[in-house]
Design brief:
ABA_WDS; 143 residues
Length: 143
């Protein structure tokens, strides 16, 4: 029993375990032929629907991060504007930091806007994939 090896599955088989045909090529050399199988994975509509729903969730998360970034940068810009008035000795520095924070807020808001549209696109694609899979159209009355 210790000498016997049991192979489970399709891979890691030795050639001595398989029957191999011997044939002669043009040059008189022996050639070995073996049988190989190819499996093809076909995606269904449910898989596409789940993929689009996952992407929609990721875009929603990123949209919220962009909104949070815009809020934080906007608050910091207002703080620096207040500091510029409060500390006239370093007012120029505070005005520069205010402008940088305002630019970051605009950029973060733009990112949130972009992610919102990506989320809408994935939501539409998910509904189309569900319709192709044969599912009924869902009405979202409460959410």
């Amino acid at each position: 029993m210790a000498e016997e090896k049991h192979h489970h599955g399709l891979f890691h088989h030795h050639k001595k375990d398989e029957e191999v045909e011997q044939a002669t090529a043009y040059g008189g050399e022996a050639t070995e032929y073996s049988e190989t199988t190819v499996t093809e994975v076909v995606s269904t509509g449910e898989d596409e629907y789940e993929k689009y729903k996952k992407e929609e969730k990721e875009h929603k998360h990123r949209e919220h991060l962009g909104e949070s970034g815009a809020l934080a940068a906007g608050a910091f810009a207002l703080y620096e504007k207040h500091e510029a008035k409060k500390d006239p000795e370093h007012a120029h520095r505070h005005k520069i930091e205010e402008e940088v924070a305002a630019a970051a807020a605009v950029g973060s808001g733009g990112f949130a806007f972009h992610e919102h549209h990506e989320k809408k696109k994935d939501h539409k694609d998910a509904e189309e994939a569900e319709a192709e899979a044969g599912g009924e159209k869902k009405h979202h009355f409460f959410g």
